[in-house]
Specification:
305 residues; alpha+beta; D-Maltodextrin-Binding Protein, domain 2; 3 domains; three-stranded antiparallel beta sheet; DNA-binding transcription factor activity; LysR_subst-bd; WH-like_DNA-bd_sf; transcription regulation
Length: 305
Amino acid sequence: MDRFDAMQAFARVVETGSFTKAAATLHMSRTSVTQLVQQLEARLRVRLLNRTTRKVNVTADGAAYYERVVRLLADVDDAETSLSSASLTPRGRLRVDVPSPFARMLLIPALPAFYAHYPEIQLTLGVSDRLVDIIGENVDCVVRGGEITDQSLIARHIGDLQLGIYATPGYLQRAGVPAHPRELEDSGHSTVGFLWSRTGRALPYAMHRGEERIEAQGRPLLIVDDGNAYLAAGLAGLGMLWLPHYMARPHLASGELLRLFDDWQMTPMPMYLAFPPNRHVSAKLRVFIDWVVQLMAEHAPLQGH
């Protein structure tokens, strides 16, 4: 038995709650992972995991051992990355999940500059607006809009997206130009709704003008759960959109979208980068986080900082 492999297998089973998921993230067979954990338990002469047909739970002894194993694995990684060649050239695979418009319009166009500095980092990029199981899917970090409600994650506030309400000229010609946000609720107007994965429903947006404050959601004819689809629906004239400025900017320049209610302010959408507290921040993850922070500073700087 390779003790290091066995500890890695045990830690991944604890983190994913499943031998099958652990095997997939380690690129091993389920049988191999099971045997490694069994051999580890035999060596330690203690049960680390309680297994049932449906789930795997860590025992009290297993939980205490897991905390030490995570620190040990992190120390080994630190020892490797402290070598001059490794510290100067971060390398290895990172799995990251980001919202689809953020990937298409900001992150991917900037990646050539990232790879110019870090050519030996391989990114596996999940592009979605769904709620990702960071630990279960072995994701190193995620970038998300809106508050991070999962208290088990470490979340870093990296930017604030300025928002506005937009519509196509064709839609406004057909439905009329609303003079006040309250008109969004009128039967003559429609919006495109966005289904937030954390809540399972479309949420209203807070707006203010001086002392006047309202929450507006409008009357969505279509509700989608993907940012690119949301933008496409608005460009098709299916209703008004609440968009971050970076998403609207090229379509404003081309005349495809017009901005409404210029004298109203919307509460900015905070952007967060989150990762598990037991996930060691390796050199490759650290430089990626720093790069994303700089990218957000250019396109959506923190407000009030």
